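User: Design a sequence. Structure:
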């Protein structure tokens, strides 16, 4: 076994850097080359069909059959000319990733001729044999099948394989035959519709020209890179994406010298390669850098409309995994692949933007715009405050559980960071008398709001420990796990903000019934009350500290560390009501999702537990016993030579090893018993709970024993690739 480790290290150390082909010309020449973009559509469709498709995209209405036929035909010719041979509906089942089933364009006609076939009906709808995708019981009890349907708001794209042929991927929603939503995308699209309506109703208070509001999203993606040979020599990474054992390396991240440091050449080469492919797919990747932990990196695109940004993020993750193979890297998206080293998140930068080109969370120097900005800002804060547990539930997963509320990670407490200036501005808004409001424009200057933009522009007032931070002109939801599909947390954020804005508009209208003259005065009056009601969620201090946990408890804020417990928010009656009222998800769909999440959680912890038991027995204990036998022989030889004092320390090590081995065997046995208990529960809710409390409790204590053995046993013999090798070889 140790052989395998040494061999893997040797291979990893002698990697050469593969040459990548850079296309000729500027980025703008190949940007979006592999997508069926608006420009391509315009060029290939008749003016009438083009107009109908684009208006359907805007309004969300269905596309007529004959138009679909024309689009399908154009899409096929375009794709075939680019080298595509197959097509697939590309959708996001509730497993977290994406799914595809490739069908060839090629077909045989009735008279035996080979033809290229792709009809409008195949574009608009497909029936994947989906019995293995999770449905949380929906499909089992009702209809056995689901279907996928084209989402024209996200452009089709071609993914090329290693052989050089491509597959036309058609972004799609995924629905059961009885109409239940079985994917992550459809509820997100629903939430965009309700947010549009609600935010527009508030935006027109300030500017009657606004007709549409869209949510915008920019996703910063963190990840680790590990050489493929090292990865393959670690069964735990291979099976669970996470190292269940491994002693901290002599050099961890204490020096913080990795962050923003120069990117290692082999890594940079990989980045250039996947960014190139991303750009061809119209994913606007812009930023790349090292992260805090060794071997950790980040990629970030420019923000886009939220549905597209979510699609692009999972597509990018997929692309990174594929391109990494060529570079002999493995990408780890797990939230906590290495104990004692920073985990990975996905920072969701979110805002709202009008069709008149205004970012509604961008402060302004003009009094009227300034009030609009504060209105949207305060409504978001209120929404997060009132629905904090629900937002927390959207980021609950097996992987993120190691990150949230653990030592070096954002807390499981939902709080909002605003920065000193904004906090001060809101305090003033809450407490100061604003008689000046009626005196016209300058009144707002007294609030200090008009000074905000210039302050924020050169403001490095950042708080990396806050799960939800205002960063100048957007909110950054930082607690989302690196492996998550953003669609779900974003769907919830959109929905809670939509409901809050709807309420605000209702309250505003009710007040105006009574007093129709003072528009601004009414807005300010409502905002003042909101701030009072929700300011306990504002926190500027260190979110990682023990003091904050104590303080948060005093404030009555939730701090739910276990994922199954956090997930329960989904099925709280008030949140089910919220989803139903906003027409984003039905009760049945929510219950199904809840169940699927519990299954996902359980499976992951179960796999980790099995890997742990296997590795500890068959790799660690067996190695320890072999090493021990050698020590015993040495001690015996020394004693035979009457060298008793010299034999003493060796016997001491033999005893230590015996101690650890006995503990590991016992603990592994007990953990298996706990697993049996969990698996025998009546409901998945109980099973998940036992996994999260009883089974998982063994992880840290078994690990401690194994990591101690790693320090004792001869480096030559140790079977598992060590942390220093995983983290520092590149
Ligand atoms: P920082 O975290 O330092 O603010 P950036 O300004 O690069 O970094 O922004 C981080 C991410 O936020 C990027 O993906 C960026 O495109 C995105 N972003 C910027 N403005 C908005 C916005 N109005 N809505 C959504 N995302 C935005
Ligand atoms: Mg950031």
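Assistant: Done.
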């Amino acid at each position: 076994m140790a052989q395998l480790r040494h061999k893997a290290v040797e291979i990893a150390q002698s990697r050469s850097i593969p040459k990548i082909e850079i296309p000729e010309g500027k980025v703008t020449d190949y940007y979006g080359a592999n997508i069926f973009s608006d420009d391509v559509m315009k060029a290939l469709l008749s003016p009438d069909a083009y107009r109908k498709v684009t208006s359907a995209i805007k309004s969300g209405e269905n596309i007529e059959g004959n138009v679909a036929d024309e689009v399908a035909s154009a899409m096929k010719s375009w794709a075939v000319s680019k080298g595509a041979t197959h097509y697939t509906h590309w959708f996001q089942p509730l497993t977290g990733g994406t799914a595809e089933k490739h069908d060839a364009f090629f077909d045989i006609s009735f008279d035996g001729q080979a033809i290229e076939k792709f009809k409008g009906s195949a574009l608009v709808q497909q029936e994947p044999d989906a019995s293995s995708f999770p449905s949380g019981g929906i499909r089992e009890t009702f209809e056995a099948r689901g279907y996928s349907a084209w989402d024209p708001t996200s452009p089709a794209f071609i993914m090329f394989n290693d052989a050089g042929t491509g597959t036309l991927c058609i972004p799609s929603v995924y629905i059961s035959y009885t109409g239940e939503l079985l994917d992550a995308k459809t509820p997100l699209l629903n939430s965009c519709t309700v947010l549009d309506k609600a935010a527009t109703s508030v935006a027109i208070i300030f500017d009657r020209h606004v007709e549409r509001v869209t949510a915008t999203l920019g996703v910063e993606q963190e990840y680790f890179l590990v050489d493929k040979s090292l990865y393959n020599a670690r069964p735990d990474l291979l099976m669970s994406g996470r190292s269940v054992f491994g002693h901290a390396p002599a050099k961890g991240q204490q020096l913080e010298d990795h962050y923003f440091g120069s990117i290692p050449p082999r890594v940079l080469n990989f980045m250039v390669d996947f960014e190139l492919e991303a750009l061809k797919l119209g994913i606007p990747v812009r930023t790349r850098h090292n992260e805090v932990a060794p071997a950790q990196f980040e990629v970030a695109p420019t923000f886009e409309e939220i549905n597209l940004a979510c699609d692009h993020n999972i597509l990018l993750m997929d692309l990174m995994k594929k391109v990494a193979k060529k570079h002999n890297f493995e990408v780890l998206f797990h939230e906590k692949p290495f104990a004692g080293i920073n985990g990975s998140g996905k920072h969701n930068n979110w805002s709202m933007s009008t069709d008149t080109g205004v970012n509604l969370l961008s402060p302004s120097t003009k009094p009227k715009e300034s009030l609009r900005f504060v209105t949207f800002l305060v409504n978001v804060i209120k929404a997060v405050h009132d629905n904090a547990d629900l937002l927390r539930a959207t980021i609950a997963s097996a992987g993120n559980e190691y990150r949230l509320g653990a030592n070096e990670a954002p807390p499981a407490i939902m709080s909002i960071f605003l920065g000193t200036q904004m906090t001060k501005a809101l305090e003033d808004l809450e407490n100061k008398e604003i008689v000046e409001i009626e005196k016209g424009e300058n009144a707002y200057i007294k609030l200090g709001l008009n000074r905000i933009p210039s302050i924020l522009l050169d403001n490095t007032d950042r708080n990396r420990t806050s799960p939800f931070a205002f960063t100048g002109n957007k909110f950054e939801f930082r607690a989302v796990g690196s492996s998550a599909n953003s669609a779900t947390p974003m769907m919830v954020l959109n929905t809670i903000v939509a409901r809050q804005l709807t309420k605000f508009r209702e309250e505003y209208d009710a007040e105006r019934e009574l007093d129709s003259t003072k528009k601004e005065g009414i807005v300010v009056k409502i905002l003042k009350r909101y701030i009072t009601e929700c300011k306990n969620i504002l926190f500027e201090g260190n979110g990682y500290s023990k003091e904050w946990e104590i303080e948060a408890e005093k404030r009555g804020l939730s701090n739910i560390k276990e994922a199954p417990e956090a997930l329960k928010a989904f099925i709280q009656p008030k949140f089910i009501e919220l989803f139903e009222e906003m027409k984003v998800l039905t009760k049945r769909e929510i219950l199904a999702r809840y169940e699927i999440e519990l299954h996902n959680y359980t499976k992951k912890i179960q796999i980790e537990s099995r890997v742990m038991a296997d590795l500890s027995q068959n790799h660690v204990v067996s190695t320890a016993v072999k090493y021990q036998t050698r020590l015993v022989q040495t001690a015996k030889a020394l004693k035979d030579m009457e060298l008793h004092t010299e034999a003493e320390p060796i016997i001491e090590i033999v005893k230590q090893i015996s101690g650890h081995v006995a503990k590991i065997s016992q603990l592994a046995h007990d953990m298996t018993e706990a697993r049996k208990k969990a698996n025998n529960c009546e409901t998945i809710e109980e099973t998940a709970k036992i996994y999260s409390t009883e089974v998982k409790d063994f992880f840290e204590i078994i690990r401690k024993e194994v990591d101690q053995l790693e320090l004792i046993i001869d480096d030559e013999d140790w079977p598992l690739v060590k942390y220093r090798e995983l983290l520092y070889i590149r």
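The first strand starts at residue 84 and ends at 90. The chain has three domains: 31-183, 192-598, 599-728.
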